Amino acid sequence: MDPDQNQPPHLPLVPHRGFNLISGLHDPGEVDLISRLQLRDSDLFIVTYPKSGTIWMQQIMLLLEARGDVSAVGSSRSNAELVPWIEVKDNSQAFMRAPSPRMCVTHLLHHFLPLDLSQRKGKVIYVARNPKDVLVSYYHFHKVANMLETPKSFDDFFEKFLRGEVFGCSWFEHIKNWYSHKDEMNMLVVMYEEMIQDLRSAIKRISMFLGKELTEEQLASMVKHSTFSTMRKNPQANYEQVSGELLSHHLGRFMRKGTVGDWKNHFSVAQNQRFDQLFQREMKEFPLSFIWDMKDLQ
Ligand code: PPS
Predict the structure, then answer these.
(1) What are the residue numbers of the active site?
(2) Please, which pLDDT band fits residue 73 given cuts at 50, 70 and 90?
(3) Within 6 Å (CB) of ligand 1, which residues are found?
(4) Does the model's pTM come out above 0.90?
(5) Which residue has the least CA distance to atom 9 on ligand 1?
(6) pLDDT per position as a tens digit, 19-61
(7) What CATH number is associated with residue 141?
(8) Which of 234, 208, 266, 294 is nearest to 58 (CA)?
(9) How crowded is residue 214: how many other Cβ atoms within 10 Å of its Cβ?
C-alpha cells in the first residue's frame, strides 16, 4: 500500500495576526497571552523560522546547562519536551511553572513574545539559515509531519513557500521582523552555516552570550554530542521519540542531511533566478549575508 494512505489528514492553517498557526496544535487565544508572561533574567527563548536549526540549538542548550555531560541531560524525555515550543497548547502555562533556567523554542513573530523581552529581561537566540536550504528542508518535512499538508510537488511547495503560505509566515518577514528588534533585547543571532563551519567557535560564542564558562573538556564534549552524526544516532535528540501520530517516521528522517547547498539538488535554473530576484528585492537593506554553498565555507 502507498504509505501516504496511512497518514492521518493534515491540520488546517489558521491565519492569526500575521502568522499561520496550526489548528488543533495551537490555540490563538493562548498564543495571545504569551506577550503578557512575566520573565526572569535567566529565561531563554530560541527563535527560529522552521527548519533553521531549532533541534540543534535545543541540543546545544541542554548540553550547555549540563556543562557537556550528556548523561546529565537524561534520556527519558526528548529535546522537544525539555525545551518545548511555547506556542503549542498548554506549554506557556507549563513554562511559567518550570524551575529556572526556563528554556523554550518558538517560531512565532516578535509581536507574540513577552513584552518583558524588550525590557531586557531574559535572552533570545535567533538561529538563521539560508532560505534556499530552509525551503528544501521544509519541503521534505511536509512529507513526514502529519499535521502539515503533503506537498503535491516540489514546484507547488516552492510557490507556497515564496508566498508564505506555510505554517509560520514568509521567511523574509520572519527574519526582518526579529532583526528589526535586535537592539531592544538581549539577542544573539547565530547562523546555521556558521555552526556547520566551526561548531566549536559557535558554541563558545553562545556560551559567552549566556555568561557560562566552559573548560576545554566540556567544550569538546559539547561539540561531540551536537554534531549531526552524533545527534542522528541519539533518539532523544533526533525526534525519533516523537509519536507516530505527529511524524510518519517511515516516510523520512527528521535529521535528514544537515548540510549546506542541498537546494542545488532541487531548484531548477528558473526557480533559482526567481528566488534570487525576490531575495534581492526583500533583503537589499538587510545587513547580514548568507552562505549558500559548502564551497563558500572553506
Ligand atoms: S523544526 O521542525 O523547525 O524544528 O526543524 P529544525 O530543527 O529547525 O531544522 C531541522 C534541520 O536542521 C538539521 N539539523 C542539523 N544540521 C546539522 N547539524 C546538526 N547537528 C543538526 N541538527 C539538526 C536537520 O537535519 C534539518 O535539516 P535538513 O536540511 O532537512 O537535514
Answers:
(1) 107
(2) confident
(3) 48, 50-56, 133, 137, 140-141, 226-228, 231, 255-258, 262
(4) yes
(5) 51
(6) 999 999 999 999 999 999 999 999 999 999 999 999 999 999 9
(7) 3.40.50.300
(8) 234
(9) 18
